[in-house]
Amino acid sequence: MPTVKAREIRRIVDNIYRAIVEQRILPGTRLVEAKLTEALDANRNHVRSALQELKHRKVVTIEANRGAYVSRPSMKEARDVFEVRKVLEGCAIEKAAENITAVDIKRLKKLANEEHKAIAAKNHPLSIAISGRFHKQIVKISCNQLILELMDDLLARTSLIIGVYERKGTGTTCHFDDHDKLIELLAAKNPQACRKFMVDHLEHLEQSLALDNHHQWSQDFTEIFQDMGSWQN
C-alpha cells in the first residue's frame, strides 16, 4: 500500500508529465519549484522528488545553477526516437492485425472520432493526448508487453520533439486521416500493409517537422493545471 507521501509525489509526477506530454508546458520551460508548489497546492519537497523522477524519465533536465526545465531533444535524439518508433510500432501493428477483434476495431474508431472532434475544436492538447492513446491501443492489441512498457516514454519524447521542432502555426500532430486508414487496414487483417502504412505514417510526421526550429517559453503553471481540471486529489 503506497504511503501518503508516495501517493502525493505520484499525483505531482502524473500532472506535470501529462502537462508536458499534452504540450501545455513546452520544451525549454523552467520548472520553478516554488511556482509548481503553489500551482499544485503541494509540498515543495514532494515537488523536488517529482522532478527527480521526471528527470529519470528524461522529460525533465536538472542542471546546477540553472535548475529544472522541460527537456529539449536534440535533432539526433529526434531522429533516434522516430527510428525506434518505426521499428517497434511497425512490429506491433503486424501482430495487432493478426489479433484484431470487432471490439478492438470499435475502440479504435471511438478514439479516431474523439480525435476528429478535438481537432475540429482546435483543442491541440487533447488531440495530442488522443493520438497517443490511439497508438498505444494498437500496441495493446499486439499483446507485446515490452513494447507497451516503452510506449509512454516514446510518446512523451515525441511530444517534446514536436514542441521544439513544430513548424510555426501548423499544429503538427499525427494526421488523423492516417488513423482512419490504419483502422481500415487492421480490419482487413493485412499485417504487411499495416506495417508499411505505420512506418510511412511516422515518417510523414517526422518529415513535417522543422529541425532547425527552437523556442523559448515562459508559462503560468497555475493557469495550466487549473485548465487541465484534474490536478486536485
From TrEMBL:
<keyword id="KW-0805">Transcription regulation</keyword>
<dbReference type="InterPro" id="IPR000524">
    <property type="entry name" value="Tscrpt_reg_HTH_GntR"/>
</dbReference>
<feature type="domain" description="HTH gntR-type">
    <location>
        <begin position="6"/>
        <end position="73"/>
    </location>
</feature>
<keyword id="KW-0804">Transcription</keyword>
<dbReference type="InterPro" id="IPR008920">
    <property type="entry name" value="TF_FadR/GntR_C"/>
</dbReference>
<dbReference type="InterPro" id="IPR036390">
    <property type="entry name" value="WH_DNA-bd_sf"/>
</dbReference>
<dbReference type="GO" id="GO:0003700">
    <property type="term" value="F:DNA-binding transcription factor activity"/>
</dbReference>
<dbReference type="InterPro" id="IPR036388">
    <property type="entry name" value="WH-like_DNA-bd_sf"/>
</dbReference>
<dbReference type="Pfam" id="PF07729">
    <property type="entry name" value="FCD"/>
</dbReference>
<protein>
    <recommendedName>
        <fullName>HTH gntR-type domain-containing protein</fullName>
    </recommendedName>
</protein>
<dbReference type="InterPro" id="IPR011711">
    <property type="entry name" value="GntR_C"/>
</dbReference>
<dbReference type="GO" id="GO:0003677">
    <property type="term" value="F:DNA binding"/>
</dbReference>
<dbReference type="Pfam" id="PF00392">
    <property type="entry name" value="GntR"/>
</dbReference>
<keyword id="KW-0238">DNA-binding</keyword>
